[in-house]
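W.,

You were right to be curious about this one. When I first looked at the sequence I had no strong expectations either way, so I just let the prediction run and decided to look at it fresh. Below is the sequence, 210 residues in total, followed by the output.
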Amino acid sequence: MAQKKLKYIAVAGNIGAGKTTLSEKLAKHFNWKVHYESTDDNPYLSDFYKDMRRWSFHLQIYFLNNRYRQLLQILEGEHTVIQDRTIYEDAYIFAPNLHDMGLMEKRDFENYRQLFELMSSQVQPPDLLIYLKAGIPTLVDHIEKRGRDYEGSMSLDYLKRLNDRYDEWIKSYEAGPLLIINADDIDFDENPEDMGTVINLVQAELHGLF
């Protein structure tokens, strides 16, 4: 029996959980490639934080399109890739949260969900999903440290709503192997020993895939 080729690792987590940092460190250790969430060159993100109701649908469609393209590249490519945030988070967390908050019209949300269902049926879930679980104080600390101007207006209520949705999504996640890392208890950015612990946890999960 041929050994399964590892293609696709994903890191999920709320805004400020540390996804990009963890993705880069794991990629360096395991010699993977990183596919980043498109934030710096995102044409809607800054406008969205100034007027969520007006730009919510545009932003979510942009992310959906961007992540779908990434997934097609990952699955067609030869390298193992770690992806910073998944297509599922947009559909199960961010878009429904905006709809529930009255920041996305029902017709836009339904249109978005139908498009997501079509796209997600064409791709496979991650070989391993790593969920970075973080409490509000940790998220706020990370957000303040990186100092993105457009994130300055984000409310604690918004972050809490997202965290609640993440918890619900992860509880019911059955698409594939799942590793939960508590970012409140571990500092993989500043503490090499903590990063070593994370690498060992990931390594153990990867061995179980073959």
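Here's what jumped out at me. Helices lie at 19-30, 45-50, 52-76, 87-100, 106-120, 136-146, 156-171, 192-207. And, maybe more interesting for your project: The longest helix spans residues 52-76.

Coffee later to discuss?

I.
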